[in-house]
Each structure stands twice: as structure tokens, then as C-alpha cells.
Amino acid sequence: MIKLTDSEVDVLAPMFSSALDLLRDRLDEIVDEISRDLLDTIPLFAHMPVEFHALLRETSRNFCEALFKSLGEGEITYDIINWGDIPGVELGDILRAFKVGSEVAWKWIRQTLEEAGYPPEETVKAAEMIWQYYFFEINSASRTFVKQRQEAVNEFNSLLNRIRVIQNREELMREIAEGACTSLGYRRAVLFLFEHEMLIPLSAMDRLDPAWGEKILEEKRRYPISPLAATPESRAFYEPAIKVARAELRESIAFLTPQQGAFYALVPVNPAGSTRGLLYIETDSPRGVIRDRDLEILNSYADTVGMALENLQLYREVEAKRRVMDQLMSRVNRAHEEERARIARELHDSVAQTLLKVIYSAGFALDFLKEDPRFAVEEIEEVQQRAKDCLRELRVIMSNLRPTPLDILGLKETILRYAEQYEEEYAISTSVDLKGLDSIPPSVELTVFRILQEELANVRKHSNADTVKISLETSQGDVILTVEDDGVGFDPKMLPLEQDGGEHMGLVAMRERAELLGGNLNIASQPGEGTRITVSLPMITGGEG
């Protein structure tokens, strides 16, 4: 607070009292003139709705009363004028408003002082007080405005940062509408996403009426939109460009009804992206306006929302792939455990049993050497034969782990030899048709051979077939393996139930091997009519070029 000298106070206070009485009597006229000049000279105020004029008069009256109070007390009492209730006001508007108000007030004060007979020197002192008051108010208003603007910028940046990192779809949609209302200051906000040629509301909020947004979402309405339509929402979405207007009586935007006199904006979101939308915002009626600076902020907001929607889509795709990878890894681990169990069973059922017989035969031979060497020779020959059987069984097991012919002979020759051995060992007529196998990656070759082994094992164990046909070819970047038998067949619809009971686990293993490489397995079978199993595998896999 800046005070005049004691002598100045002694002179001014009693001398201005009569003039101040006259000024207070004329206060309504002064306020009317200030308000008119503000509407004529400041574009923001001129474009405000009529309902704003009362707020403008109230602010002008507060300015005059604070100025008269300072003159009456003989000292500058700095009552800061609150401009926060005027929507969309900029610092330049505030400074021009103070200039207009000070000029009009000074004109009336000077005129009143002259009418009351005040000498010129006293008029000059009054002018000095008004000058001091004017400069303090504009300095205070500038500091307050800059502080508020910085706070608003910080809050806006905080909102953008929150939106950028949200990975939950519902949370993101809610934050977009809430942010437009609570941080940007709009009355209403609705986010529409564009799907199937329709605008679908996914979040909505009214800052003063929570039930409004809830009702919009509960109704689950859809709004068809077309590039040929001349509606505001169609033009905003397809041009794409922000559309701003003031709502007329009973005007409809999509299925929304703005408050009469309120300004609204339709902001395209992510117009070139995979997830497109439209943001509807509405100001408080009738005081709200949307200025050029607001459009810049809305553009920035829409850009961040669009990026967040794209990120959300990527997050969801990554999460889906992660779940698939988790499932595949679970299957891989289960397959490894099953393979270990299978090897253990094979070693127990074949090699271990044979070695046990070798031990018994060797023991008998030692006993016979003491009693009758002729019987010992027979037992030794038995040991030799069983050792050969054991070696053959070990070689079969090792071959199953990684078929040696596959590395040496390639897939085609390995299948031909395996089919020949299969037919000879199990007396099942086996035919082979192989085409175009030169470009198959090694990982796919091994999977094909493993699935073929499992399929032929199923034919041997379950089909009671006389013949089996093997077909393998490449087509449009895929490897197609078909195994068809003339056995007893089965009902594929019963597979899930039977697999829950532990049956047909070989089919489960084959399907999982195929899916690990991004392929699929199809079964065609009927009871009494044989079975045809077709496996399709892509030749380019995640682990190959």
C-alpha cells in the first residue's frame, strides 16, 4: 500500500468528500459508460452473449467503488479486481479494460471536481492517485494472470502426461472426458470412437451434472456418420477440422442436445490413425466462449488423445501376444516334460528290460560254466543277441530325439525310409506322395517329421487300418501334410470330452506342435470310414528369416 503525505491526506480527504458523494450518486451512469466502452473496444466482450453484460457491469462497479474508496480515504487502497469469472479473458483484454475504465472514471472525476469548485492543483493530486491505482492494478493483474496461466499450463501438461501412460481402456476413456471438463474447464465432454461407420460414445461427463454422462453411456446409442452428410459432426470428422458453433434452440449434435446459447466444438481425434474418433466439448451457458487459443489447446489435447488411443491399441496387441507366448511357452514346457517322460518309459520298457535279461543270462552262463559249458555257450549267445537288441533300441530312441537321416538325407528321403520301415514292421500298406520340399526351413522339417511320426503311431495304435496314405506338399508359402487311413475312424465332436479323460493325447501333441509354428491341424473322420488329418505350417516362422 502506497500512502500520501499527512498534509495531502488532511487536504484531500475533507475536500473530496462532497465530490465523492456526487460521484456515488452518478455511479450507475459511470458504470453504464464503462460497460458500453468495454463492449465497443474489446472484441472478446463484444462477442459475449447478452447474459455476460451483468457480469461486466459488476466488475466495472467494483473497479469504481475501489477507486472512490481510495480517494475518500486519501490513500491508495489496492483492492485487486477478480477477472477469473470472465471466461476466455486474456491479459491484453484485462489491460485494455483497465485503460478504458480508468479513462472513463477519470473523465467523470475531473468533471465532478470542477463542478464542485476544486482548484486545479487538487485535481492534479486526484489524477496522481488514479494513476497510481491504475498502474498497481495492471501490475497485480499481470502477475496474477501469469501465475494462473502457468498453473493452468502445468495442470494441462500433467493431464497430457497422465493420458499418455494409461494402459487400461476404461481408465483412459474416463480420463479423456474428465480431463476436458476438470482441467480444460468445459461444462460437458463426450468422446466418440468411430467403428463400423458409426460414432460410439465411450466416455461422457457433465461437470455439474454427473447423471448426464452416465445416461449417455447407459443408453449405448450409435450414431451413423457419412462423408456425404452436411452435419457438423460429419464435416468435423471427415474434413478433418475443428468445428465451433453456438447452440441454437433444440439443436442436435449426433444425439446430443447442447444447452441453448452454449458454445460447442467438435474435435477430430487421430484422423489418420487406426483408432479414430471425435471429441465433443461444450462450454458453460451462456458465459462460455471458445477462442483461438482454446482451439490450439484442443488441437494439442486431441493429438495426445489420438496418440494414447494408438498406444492403447499397441498395448493390447502386445498383451495379447504376450498371453499367446505364455501359452506357447507353457506348451513347450509341457511338451518337454512329456518328452522326458516318454523317453523314460521307452528306456524302462525296452533298454532297461533288455539289460535286465542280459544280467540274468550272464548269471546263468557263469553258473553253467561250472556245471556244463555247453549250456553256458547258449546263454552267452543269448547275452550277445540281447545286447544287440539293446543297442538297436537305443539307436531308435536317439533317432527319435533327432532323426539322423533328417540331417544327412533331408526330409523327403527320411520320410520315404521311415514309411518303408513302418510298412515292414507293422504290416500296414503305406503309400507316399511328396512334392516341392526343397525350400522348407530345418525347424519346420523337424516339426513335420515329428507330427508324421505321431500320426503314424496313432494309426498303428487306434485305427486298425490296412492302408495309410502320406501326402506332403508346399502351397502358397505353407507346408501341407496329410495322413489318411482306412481304419475304424471316430467322432471328432467327442474329442474334447475324451481328451479330458486322458484319451487322444497324441492329437493334442500334434496340434500343439503345429500351433507353436503358427500352423493348424484339421481332422476329418467318421466312425467306420477312416480318418484324414491335415496339418498346415507356414514355411516362414518366428525363428527363421
Q: Which features would summarize this protein structure in a list?
A:
545 residues; six-stranded antiparallel sheet; 11 strands; rod-shaped
Mean pLDDT: 84
Q: What class, by secondary structure content?
A: alpha+beta
Low-confidence stretches: 1-15
Order of helices and strands: HHHHHHHEEHEHEEEHHHHEHEEHHEE
Write up this protein.
It is a single chain. With 545 residues, this protein is of the alpha+beta class. 61% of the residues lie in helices and 13% in strands. It has 16 helices and eleven strands. The protein has helices spanning 6-25, 27-41, 43-46, 53-73, 91-115, 120-165, 169-183, 210-219, 232-238, 292-371, 373-401, 404-408, 411-426, 442-463, 495-500, 505-516; strands spanning 188-195, 198-206, 223-224, 243-246, 263-269, 277-282, 429-434, 467-475, 478-485, 520-525, 531-538. It has a six-stranded antiparallel β-sheet, sandwiched between helices. A five-stranded mixed β-sheet has the order 7-8-9-11-10, covered by helices on one side. The model is unreliable at 1-15 (pLDDT under 50).
Question: How does the SSE layout of this entry go?
Answer:
Layout: H1 6-25, H2 27-41, H3 43-46, H4 53-73, H5 91-115, H6 120-165, H7 169-183, E1 188-195, E2 198-206, H8 210-219, E3 223-224, H9 232-238, E4 243-246, E5 263-269, E6 277-282, H10 292-371, H11 373-401, H12 404-408, H13 411-426, E7 429-434, H14 442-463, E8 467-475, E9 478-485, H15 495-500, H16 505-516, E10 520-525, E11 531-538
Parallel strand pairs: 7-8
Antiparallel strand pairs: 1-2, 1-6, 2-3, 4-5, 5-6, 8-9, 9-11, 10-11
Helix pairs in contact: 1-4, 1-5, 2-4, 2-5, 5-6, 6-7, 6-10, 10-11, 10-16, 13-14, 14-16
